[in-house]
Structure formats: C-alpha cells, structure tokens
Queue: 3 jobs
Job 1
Amino acid sequence: MESEPAVDHDLATAEMRAQWNRTAKGWDDAGTVIRPWLHKATQAMLGMAGVVPGAHVLDVAAGAGDQTLDIAERVGPHGYVLATDLSPEILRFAAEQAAAGGYRNVETRVSDGQRLQIEDSRFDAVVCRLGLMFFGDPLQGLREMVRVLKPGGTVCTMVFGTPQANPCVATLMSTALRHAGMPPLDPYQPGGLLSLGKPGLIDELFIEAGFCEIATTKVAAPFRLPSVKDYMNFIRTSAGPVVQIVKRLDPATAEAAWSDMEQALGRYQQPGGWEGPNELLLTAARRS
Ligand SMILES: C[S@@+](CC[C@H](N)C(=O)[O-])C[C@H]1O[C@@H](n2cnc3c(N)ncnc32)[C@H](O)[C@@H]1O
C-alpha cells in the first residue's frame, strides 16, 4: 500500500490544532490588520459562494470569526451560520465576537474539516477562507463539503496562489527554515501555507471531490501597512506555520531569523508605506 497510515494524519492534525490554539489570540488581536487586507477578496468569496439572505451557511476553518460575521450580516436574521474550526481556542473568539455583535444566527462547533460531524445535505453554501491549504488531506475536506451541501448548493474557498505571486510568504518560510538548519520545503507539500497554489491543483481536487461548475479566480490582495515592522509584528504573533519553526530555535538564533526576514521584506517599503504583494485563489463550485 502506497498511502500513509491514518495515524500520521491524526498526528499532523493534532499538531495543527496545537499550533492554532497557541496563535489563536494573536490571530484575533490582528483582526484590525486582517480585515482590511482581506476585505475585498472576502466580499468576492461570499458573492461567489452564493451567500444570500436566508441562506444556511457552513464556515469551515472559521478561525476567530472575521468572515463569519460578514456571512451573518449577509444572510440576515432568517439565515444561519455554523462556524467550525479544528482549534477550540481560536473558535472561542468567533463565538465571543458573534455574541458581542448580537448575531443570534451564528453557532460555533469544534470540528476537523476533514471529518465534519454534520449530517448530509444540510447547507445551502459552504465557505472556507485561508483554511483548506492547512488540511493534510484537502481532497477529503472537499468531499466533506460536497456531502454537507444540499444538491445544487454552492461553495467558495480562498487559498494562497503560487510562491512567485506570494513572495512574502515564500521569504518568511525559506528564511525560518534556513535558520533552523532545515532543508527548503516543497512549497506544494500538503498542509503548507502555499500547498494549494500549484497551478491547476485546486481545480483538479474540486473535480475529484465531485463538484461541478468549477471556476478559479485570482485576486490580488496586497498587504498594506505603515512599515515592514508592522508586518513583522503581525507575522510574529499570528502566522502559526512561521512561528512554529522559529519557536524551536534558541533566543539569539530566533532573533536573527526575525531580523533577516524583516530585512528581506524591507524591499517592499515604499515612500507612502509598506506594501507586500499577495495573490489569492478563489475557487467556486456547485454540488450537482
Ligand atoms: C489562517 S487561519 C484562517 C482563519 C479564518 N478563516 C480567517 O480567514 O480569518 C487558518 C485556520 O484554519 C484552521 N484549520 C487548520 N486545519 C484545519 C482543519 N483540518 N479543520 C478545520 N480547521 C482547520 C486553523 O485552526 C485556523 O483557525
């Protein structure tokens, strides 16, 4: 048998959960920078997913709930959102935000997107913002989305594109690995930040999962902040995969790694502020 034993996936998933439990507060605190960064792409994603008034929507890998509240706003009081995530710590913030905003149409549930414990054919739409690329088995995640959608239901996922189109992400990972004495990783290795950016891959996975009417759109999402230091503050507190590598280093090596990243990314400093290029892939599809 060529396939990995299931226990390896379980271990990787447990590590992923621990990683996001640790960075949960950082991701929530960074809401003020994440929201403007992803606003335009998020609105496009919700439109492509068919999030309309009255719809029942599943938000997979919902994190601290930023896009969950946008969905709740769109579906209105007659609609419903179930926000799910692998990490209970990060999902707690989504629940708190929904309660604080008075959204009574939002529920949260801790759930691995590869094993949603949700009945078949329950939702009109499924959304997954910057989550699917972390799945060790994204095809299984997509199969679960097909299963819980009603016939005719729609989905839209958002993932990062190629390393060339996301040079900041690529630089952060390669610099962290170099300081850790680790060899460069295949950027398309399952579970990595850029794993679904390989041209054509996400469409192939959607086809294999059984979706129809599949269309992927590239969206530019530059990260605009006053300075590279602000970007590094965001990365150091919120970017789970990078923090995960650097935290294994002794304090002096870790500081050298952060400093090298800052220096390399300083090339995106402009007179009016810092602007890091990012390209996102929005993939929309329908369950037949
Ligand atoms: C970059 S954050 C994105 C959170 C949120 N969707 C957003 O855009 O603000 C990635 C999220 O994916 C979640 N995640 C990773 N693997 C997962 C899995 N197998 N099932 C469900 N959620 C997962 C993490 O816990 C984390 O909350």
Job 2
Amino acid sequence: MPTHQSLSGSSDEDLLRRMVKSHAERYGDAFWKFFDAQVAPHLPPRPTVIDLGCGPGLFVRDLGLRYPDATLHGYDVTPAMIAHGRELPPTGATTTFAVHDVATQPLPHAAGTVDLVTMSSVLHVFDEPWPTLAEIRRVLAAGGIFLLHDWIRQPLATYLAYRRDVLGESDADCQRRGFRLFPVHNKYTTADWLWLLDHVGLPAAEHAQLRDSHRIFVCRPA
Ligand SMILES: C[S@@+](CC[C@H](N)C(=O)[O-])C[C@H]1O[C@@H](n2cnc3c(N)ncnc32)[C@H](O)[C@@H]1O
C-alpha cells in the first residue's frame, strides 16, 4: 500500500521534521477549543485513548499533559515516528508508543475498552478504510468517541495555493509534491466521509472545518 512518504517522495525523516514543525499550528487554539467543547465533556476522568498514525507523538504528549491520569497509546507504521514519541519527556499519563500497521493489523485492545480513538491525516491514505473503521468501532467503549480529522477535497488551484502559501512550499516543490499528492489529499468530500462513517456504524454527531484543507468529525458508535 502506498504511504505518504512513497507518494510524496519524502523520506521518513523529512515527514517527521515537517510533522514536528507544523504541530503547534495544526493543534493550536482552534483545535483545542473544538476538543474542549465537543470531546472533553464526554471523557471519563481516567480515559483510555489511542492515536492511530500518531506521527512524532506530540498530540499524545499534549493529551498526557491535559490528562495525567489517562492511559495513552500511540501507534504508527513508521519506526522513526515511534522512536521520536518514545524520547519525549514523560507527562504523568501512562503512555506507550508502538510500531503498528493500523491498515492491516487488528488493534491490540479488547472490545469496548477505549474511550477515545483519534486519527489525524492518516485514513485518506488507506486503499480500503473499512477494516480499520470496523476495528475502531470494535474497541470503542459505550459512549466512546472517534475523532477523525482528515483532508477534504479542494479544487486543484486552491490546493496548490495552500501548499505554496500555507505550507510554504517553493514552486518546484509544488510541482513535484503538489501534483503527486493532489489525488491522495483530495480523495474524499465531507459528504464522502459522512457516508463512510455512517456505513460503519460510527455516525458523526458533530463536524467542523478548523482549516481549509481538513474536516474534523466527532463520531459515536451507533
Ligand atoms: C501526515 S502524518 C500525521 C501524523 C499525526 N497524526 C499528526 O497529525 O501529526 C501520517 C502518519 O500516518 C502514519 N501511517 C501511514 N500509514 C499508516 C498505517 N498503515 N498504520 C499506521 N500508521 C500509518 C505515517 O507513518 C505518518 O506518521
């Protein structure tokens, strides 16, 4: 299956650097305001949370600072990402990072035991999202939440302008990465995501657009 790295021609280290550099902007005030309004009120005081495709682990770290009594798991298929997460300073929360391919392997959790599953900018890459979504639904506790934040379809000109103006890419990089990644990042519309989520029994109770390129969905098991 293609990965972000193989599609963009970036190395693991390059993607890691870009994820770390953009973390504060991607998980900024707008994100936490939304999280505090739509997710936090539904979490138990000692939540179990798993982040699928956790990248460098910085969101898991942020959750640990907010929920020091939580049990947190970050999974990623790229060893360099997991190595980065493991080197982050402890937060108080019980935190584990593991190399795990969430597209092809079952989640290592019993049914109905996870309060929050998060997945940001990962699911659009998968050739076939059903098995992963079914696994997410299996592990979610009653009243649990799946927080999906992912790319939505934009016109080509808007997408290339976003890469140049927001991501700060040069014209050369726009040509190389932009055209190669356009079909990957612009695969699903908001309606497509809603349809997928409905069909797997994880309907979105809320959704919002915090960035032009992405939509965030708060889903609960039907
Ligand atoms: C664009 S990064 C997003 C990282 C993180 N979620 C964030 O928002 O900072 C996508 C991540 O998904 C991971 N990934 C891609 N395919 C995966 C798979 N099949 N299983 C687990 N992780 C995967 C990549 O290694 C990469 O770290």
Job 3
Amino acid sequence: MATFISHSPAATEALGEQWGRTAGPGWVFGLSGDLGAGKTQLVRGIARGLGITARVHSPTFTLVNHYPGGRLPLFHLDLYRLETPAQIHSAGLDEFLQPDGVTVIEWAERLDAIGWPWPPGRFRRVQLEIAGESGRQIFYEDPDA
Ligand SMILES: Nc1ncnc2c1ncn2[C@@H]1O[C@H](COP(=O)(O)OP(=O)(O)OP(=O)(O)O)[C@@H](O)[C@H]1O
Ligand SMILES: [Mg+2]
C-alpha cells in the first residue's frame, strides 16, 4: 500500500490526474471512504488525466456516468444506494466494467460484500481517510509495484 497525504482538494485531484494519465484499458479503481472523503474529487482528477473536459459529478440518480471524449472512456459508478447483495446482483454492473475503458467505483466495498471478482493486475483499491478539514490520507494499491 502506498500513502499520499493530501492537504487540499487540488492535491487530491492532482493525484487522480496522474493516475488518469497512466491508466490503461480495462483499469478499475475501487474507492472507499466516508461521505466527503474526496472520492468524487479524485475522480475529477482521473477524468482530467484522461483528457476529459466535461465537468464530473457523482452519479446520484443514475448508477453510472459515462464520459467519452478522452484518451479512454471513463465510467464513474457510485454504489452508495445499493445496500443489499440482491440490489447489487440485479444492478447489472458487469456491463460497466468495460475492457476498453477506465472504471471508477465509489463505495467499492459494497462489491467486496458479495465477493466481486476484481480483475487481477488492473484493479487499484483506494481508501480515503479524512484528517481534519482539508487533510486527507489516501492509501492505494499499486498494481505495477
Ligand atoms: N484534501 C482534500 N481532498 C479532497 N477533498 C477535500 C480535501 N479537503 C477538503 N475537501 C473537501 O471535501 C469534500 C469532498 O467531497 P467529495 O464529493 O469528493 O467526497 P466523496 O468522498 O465523493 O463523498 P460522497 O460519499 O458523498 O460521494 C469537498 O467539499 C472538498 O472540497
Ligand atoms: Mg462522491
């Protein structure tokens, strides 16, 4: 696990931007952390790193937002509202884990609960912890390490 200490929303976004620049097709980022931990902020950076200029908002009324137009298409999922294994199973998430795109999932731990088969080698688990008003600790796996 690597650790990144962020002192501002911009720093969190910059970390995501690095990841977006280097992400390859089929990559999946699984984000976990409390409300307001900065998951969506990180996704904004990933989108920017992929060259996506659209404004990124958390998908609240839909399960997924699709951002084309970058180096690779970005699929942004937010599983906050999927509370039970039955809801997760019936949501049809498989179709969003596109081998040709990059997928970022907020509340990814909801999938651990049903034993989701994360793609080996292309999955980066990320845990964000709030450390004061503008501090965040970001722990992440590095599949290349
Ligand atoms: N270092 C930081 N990194 C990221 N966000 C920060 C930081 N410091 C303060 N913030 C603030 O914390 C909030 C993070 O909101 P964001 O929507 O990214 O969280 P989230 O984890 O996606 O929450 P939710 O679970 O509600 O979707 C923003 O208001 C942002 O300005
Ligand atoms: Mg969010």
